[in-house]
Amino acid sequence: MEFDKILSISGKPGLYEMKAQTRGGVVAQSLIDGKKIQVGLRNNISVLSEISIYTYIDEVTLKQVLQRIFEKTEGQKTIDHKSSKKELETYFREILPEYDEDRVYQSDMKKVFQWYNLLIDNGFTDFSEKQEDKASDEEE
Q: What is the rounded distance in angstroms from the CA atom of residue 108 to the CA atom of residue 74?
C-alpha cells in the first residue's frame, strides 16, 4: 500500500485505497471492511499525501504529522479519536506544538488520530519521507 494511493472520500467513513482509475472516477477499497466501491468525480476525493496541517510558520504535511505520532507511540496505536476535546488538543500539541489553533479544528485532530489508527490496523507503517521525495522537492 502506497501513501499516495490512500484516499479520504467525503460522505464515506474511514480511508480507502485507490485500486484503479476509471473515466468517471476511481475504484477504491475500504480499509475498514475491504469492500470495493466506485467513486464518481462528483465526490470530493482527497489524497492523503496532499493534505497539510497549518502551523504558525508554515504548513506541515500529513505524512510528517503521522511520522511524529508513529515515533511517539513507537509504532503502536495512538489516542482514540473519540477522546475529549481537551485530551485531543493536549496530545496534538505534543505531536505538533506549533499548530495554528485558529485554523486546525477539533474535527481535524479527530481525523488525524482516526486515520493514523486505521493505517496502523492495516499494517501501514512507512510514514518517513523517502529520499526520492526529498530529491524531487529540491528540484522544484
A: 22
Angle between helices 62-73 and 106-121 (to 10 degrees): 60
Residue pair 115/8 in contact by the 8 Å Cβ criterion: yes
pLDDT bucket at 130, cuts 50 / 70 / 90: low
Query: Looking at the whole model, is its pTM more than 0.85?
Result: yes
Question: What is the maximal distance between C-alpha atoms in the chain?
Answer: 44
Q: Residue ranges per domain, the chain? A: 3-48, 51-121
CATH no., domain 3-48? 2.30.30
Cell numbers at residue 98, please? 506549533
Q: Which residues contact 99 (CB under 8 A, 6 or more apart)?
A: 53, 54, 55, 56, 60, 92, 93
Average the pLDDT over 38-42 and give the result. 90
Which CATH fold would you assign to the domain 51-121? Arc Repressor Mutant, subunit A (1.10.10)
Q: Which phi-psi region, left, alpha or beta, contains residue 120 (left: φ > 0; alpha: ψ -120 to 50)?
A: alpha
Which residues are bridge partners to 45 per DSSP?
9
